[in-house]
Amino acid sequence: MELTSNEAKERYAALAANMSRTVIGLDFDGVLSPIVDDPAQAHIHPDAHDVLVPLATKALAVAVITGRPARQALALGGLDEIGAEIAGEGRELYLFGQYGNERWSSTQRRIVSPRPPAGLARFLRELPQLIRSADVTGAYIEEKGLAVAVHTRQLDDPAAAQERLIPVLEKAAAQHDLSLEPGRAVVEVRAGGMHKGLVVDYLAEQLEAGGFLFAGDDLGDLEAFHAVADLRTRGLDTLLVCSASDEQSALVELADVVVPGPDGVLDLLRQLTADAP
Length: 277
Ligand SMILES: O=P(O)(O)OC[C@H]1O[C@H](O[C@H]2O[C@H](CO)[C@@H](O)[C@H](O)[C@H]2O)[C@H](O)[C@@H](O)[C@@H]1O
What we know:
Elements lengths: L1 E2 L2 H12 L4 E5 L21 H11 L2 E5 L4 H8 L1 H10 L4 E5 L4 E4 L14 H14 L6 E4 L3 E5 L6 H18 L3 E5 L2 E5 L5 H11 L4 E6 L5 H12 L3 E7 L13 E3 L1 H15 L2
Parallel strand pairs: 2-3, 2-10, 3-4, 10-11, 11-12
Antiparallel strand pairs: 1-12, 4-5, 6-7, 7-9, 8-9
Helix pairs in contact: 2-4, 2-9, 5-6, 7-8
The structure holds the ligand O=P(O)(O)OC[C@H]1O[C@H](O[C@H]2O[C@H](CO)[C@@H](O)[C@H](O)[C@H]2O)[C@H](O)[C@@H](O)[C@@H]1O.
């Protein structure tokens, strides 16, 4: 683990000492689950269970905060089982799906979800034509109920395909009052108004947190990084962890700790559990 400054070392030590009042916020894809070509096969890291359960016994709460639909994150993450063990220890696992639009927790064990945004059905009808006009035929379409993600990872040149896709989808999304969420070899179209930063604020307030760690890897985690940085200015102990890849570097300069992908995230969380009183 690379602590990026002396300040980062101090932040790590303060957060570890204050773990019982700290919320651990974790992104799913690229942080708890290694990136794979097929989004339906992105299972959680095999060590995650053995790291998250002991971590949860020391932290105030653990929250998975993801762009995935909550139902899918539960299945790919085995989060129902992990949550049951955490609940058995008298602690809570939270899951926020679709960037905070869907909510689940290990004591409630029920997904609360809003209706899909009004323009999504019309957007979906136009999507095949939009894909042709962006010249990304063969892109994988992931329908998410509240949103749709168009993946370019399976194409010959994913980055170039994504570049062609963004302006086309952005224009159409705006016509249907929808927002664009670009990510690693993916462009997502969803309702605006909700993001991971609002989830961070919600958890910090509801749980009266004294500390907040957030680990992310992609553009959809930026708002959470900014929200945690804001909590720092309000006196909370914080640690920002970037799960590094050669696909996205936007979080690196904001992070206190840069780790090599999900293996590195789990090593850090293991260390933090050991260092906490
Ligand atoms: O907020 P996250 O947990 O990071 O979810 C963001 C999106 O992740 C998924 O796509 C990413 O992971 C796939 C599987 O490894 C990979 O094939 C793809 O290229 C990545 O962008 C997911 O499919 C999306 O629905 C999520 O919104």
